[in-house]
Amino acid sequence: MSDDASLKVSVWRGAEAGSFETFDVPMQESQTVLDLVAWVQQNADPTLAYRYACRVGMCGSCAMMVNGVPRWTCRTHVSKVAKDGTVEIAPLRNLPVIKDLAVDMDPFFDKWTAAGGAFSPTKSRDDTVEPILPETPERREADAAIECINCAVCYAACDVVSVNPDYLGPAALNRAWSLVNDVKDGALDARLTAVSGAGGCHNCHSQQGCVAHCPNELNPTASIAGLKRATVRAALKGRI
Questions:
Q1: What is the pTM of this model?
Q2: Integer Cα distance of 86 and 164 in angstroms
Q3: What pLDDT score was predicted for residue 4?
Q4: Beta strand pairing call for 86-90 and 6-13
């Protein structure tokens, strides 16, 4: 790689009605997309707004659209995504843009709450801790869904969210499924009621964009399918 090799990096500027601005960014070995954004902010335009924290693929806060695909930018190497020496970086889809690459996460977390994403305990801190065997079917289902860190990549990848703003989205429903399978939780019927209504699990078209792009390799589509079965059974029994 020559010392003067560079990339054409198009970065979204402004809010919803903004546009792309292109920068010449020097190429480096093992360069990530987040490195590109940081270079622009540190060397070309200090007013560029974006969000990041850990830089090691743990927090998910650096998620952005890279060439039209939602990704964690800290774990996305430029060599994997650059097309003819160009990279396009935009804010996450399906969320309001605050400024440049920073989006408003409130709608995402509001839906997480609306889907019953908060644990509802059945015991107090004074009660004996209940042993939960890891090999039970319920615990296996909960464990398969529990590693979501709310980065909103799946939400940005979801075409149903794009056409139906009321849809709760993959992350919120995946969280609901993990709690449905948590035997310590005491809000089963209330949660099934929440996810079975307008904008709930039955709006999912099983296109699996959430599965394809989840950085933690979770399967929200499977979780949503579980919710569909559980809500139908609960409705037939008159519980919801």
A1: 0.94
A2: 32
A3: 72
A4: parallel
